[in-house]
Amino acid sequence: MKRKGNFDNISGYLFIMPQLVGIFIFSVLPLVAAVGLSFFKWDLLDVPQFVGLKNYITQFTQPDFGNSMLNTLKYIVVYIPLNLILSLGIAALLNNIAFKTFYRTIFFLPVVTSSVAVSMIWLWIYSDDFGILNLIIRLVFHGKGIGWLTSTTWVVPSIAIMSVWWSVGYNMVLFMAGLQGISRSYYESAELDGANALSQFWHITLPLLSPTTLFISIVTIISSFQVFDQIFIMTDGGPGKASEVIVKYIYTQGFQNFKMGDSTAAAVILFSIIMVLTIIQFKTQDRWVHYDN
Amino acid sequence: MVCKNFKIISIVVILMFAFSVLAVGCGSSQTAAANNSSTVGQASSETATADKAPAQKVKISYSHWQDNETSKIIKQKALDFTAKNPNIEVDTIAIPSSNYMDKMKALAASGELYDTFDCGDDTFVNFAKKGYLAEVSNVYTSGLLDKSIFKDTILKYNEVNGKTYAVPQTHNTMVVYYNADLFKKAGLPTPQELMDKDRWTWDNFLTSAKKLSAMQESGKKYYGFVFDPGWWGGYFGWMASNGGAPFDANGNPTFSSKETKQAIQFLYDGVKDGTFTLAQMLPKGVGLEQLFKTGTVGMFYSGRWSLQMLKDFKDFEFDIVPIPKSPAGKYGATVPWANICISAKSKNIDAAEKWIAFFAGDGSMKDFVGYQGLPASKNLDHLITDVGIPKHAQTYVDVIQYAVANATYPVMLESPEAATELSKKMQDIFVGAKEGRTNVDKDTAQLDESLKKILANK
Questions:
Q1: What ipTM goes with this model?
Q2: Which of B91, B116, B200, B445 could lock B194 by a disulfide, CB 3.0 to 4.6 Å apart?
């Protein structure tokens, strides 16, 4: 019996071995290498030189890293609340209507569209002189139009709005799954007690949806810190450095300026920020996450 | 049980470590080889030179900027070369231009550079100094290619510290394209007419651009002048025309010097009052040429490569002129250039030399130049005027006397970070003009300071 148990264990580990090897080679090793590299000065062409903590000090003393963090925060401030509110709102609306699957598919379609295709279409929508948004502003509101991607004020919010359109379907599906997991009995009891729809939503739906909200907020925060594709395609960090977010900064330092040390130091800092935020969310979950058990 | 599981997990982890150490070990040996590339290159070169005619069939690679028209020509040239050299096959690799040099740098770092490849003005010096390029003077000394056919001004861009690391491919001159019909419609003399009367000046250029921008017709928007400040080619020529330069002879940035700043201020003021339009305002993927073809652009600043898209265009008459004469009394232009290099790690340097000599020679270049560049050979300038488009095509050749090339400032070429900073900051200055946010005096001084810092830490 014991021998069979050992055999089961070994075969289990062998089955997950390819996955573990993949994770080790493509995730763990690069992570370790990135941390190691962040203590070196290396331009890809010369032999790396050990510089200690210099690359980390550089990040905190030169303006570009700070600028990219600020742009990332601007993006997060627009993207996360909009995304969570919209995805929850749509999920709640679609939860009890006919043709639910059809609407769900419609809202989910942008999620399965490639970032390049989405970005190219939105480039046209946002175009100063040729875009449909400015055309509407000019024709309907007789305004001059907005430099959606060419104004340093508008560029980050514009990309955040586009990203919300692109990804809201994903969170909506998760919220819908969460909503369907809430037992009807809670609502029936609340109805008997005379609670209206808003009260039911506030006192039943939101608390019982909190595990889903926790998961979604963690994933959304991580993904918003990692925003890159749409910025790389639509603005290349411009105009000037107005949309140079942290991952674009890491890319620029590494593959345009060939400062791999600075690039990896910034990547390690980003990794630490995301990890700390995730730990805080987990640590504080007792206060706001309610598991239905 | 826990202990047994721990043992098994340990075995799995040790196996994974062993595997990864093997993988890293293989990687290290490749990196070490890359670090010694110059030695390897020299050794290979000597061996290859001794073995003048490869007895066995060899395959060499050649990477180039992707372009449908030129890619076809290059493929054909590779076949023509193999027909003459049956033992050498050339595998041509087309790479999208937007990330071409980034890819080259990554390949160089991993020791995987192609045997031969197009190199641009922003990387050549850096690659040569770091030992990634084979010295190619043998191409000339062995008689594979006649050095005397090339223009001296272009040959110097293929040398670093007195050694030859490339043969010329093509270069370009950037000029002002204009829609002659639109000028006539606006009741303006064309730039060429002004040039003929020696009145093609910054003032008259500005007057024309203002009038063209102000044209109104059934909701159509007109653009007096469109340029791209997102790279050095967009503004170096204007600085040169005013007697300015972005860097001094010692490599110090001089964007805040009087003449250079004046040129930036001129462009800045035009952008600020809406007379000039930045290429950045167009949707990505819409080239200046496409907008020009709509008939709404009076003038735009670009290289001969724009001719690829305009060569069959007949809806209106267009022509070219140099950057107008500045208050300093000079015309201006910009010269981006490209050359063909051999990787120091190539195992077939002899075959690679034969190929680059064949491709850079007059026989190939006469077909390759087409509508996208200017030949480096003195013998082929007639190709530019032979095509008859545009009417004053000779201007492409003539403006080289007013031109400034990026290569003039090796200090920038050696620091990709300085190049990125320059592009971003200049773009920001001009975008800021539209938003009333930037100031040429303050921002050029800041640019000088930040470039100095970057170059000091290079």
A1: 0.72
A2: B200
